[in-house]
Amino acid sequence: MELVKEALASLPEGLVKKAERFFDGQDPAHDWQHNLRVIGLCERIGREEGADMQILRLAALLHDIGRAEERRTGECHAEISARLVPELLTEYGYSEEQAALVQQVILAHRFRKERPPTSLEDKILFDADKLDSIGAIGIARAFAYSGVIGQPIFSDDPSVHTPAREYEWKLSRIQERLMTSTARRIAEERHTFMELFFAQWKKELHGML
Q1: Is the pLDDT at 113 greater than 60, yes or no?
Q2: How many other C-beta atoms can be found within 10 angstroms of the C-beta atom of residue 50?
């Protein structure tokens, strides 16, 4: 957590506290702890890749503050988060140009064909957010979120979504989508762990272990 502490210490304390309040009542897969892990990964990757750390730290801090409103309205949380940025940052003395750069990074982390990550900071936030979806943490988040929305942990019905299907359809493909060399290196061990976990999962389900 040292990287997280260092990143947060570089930001206005009031801004960090305001950001944290946006996560009140969030599910355990998208809570403040997820945000802190993404901040830590951005710090690690950003330092190695030579990013603009001020913009990256601000974007990491604020990238998911729209989650609660997304749950209420269905609007994309990245759009909501980006929309909230200017008012939050200008209160703490950041310029309009800095706010616009942070908005761009936040919008790009929710990868869409019309808005792919282009800057280094875009790519790092995208990678950090995706890295938190794989490995041991990623598995825990998948099972936690399944519980939140009432999905079973296993089903013979192929139309029913489960954590194992989340792995097969999405999590197993994340490693190949990462954009920075640092993130791809971090992903290797996390990806291998998931392969081992779900191989054993299948064996235990079928009484082989």
Answers
A1: no
A2: 8
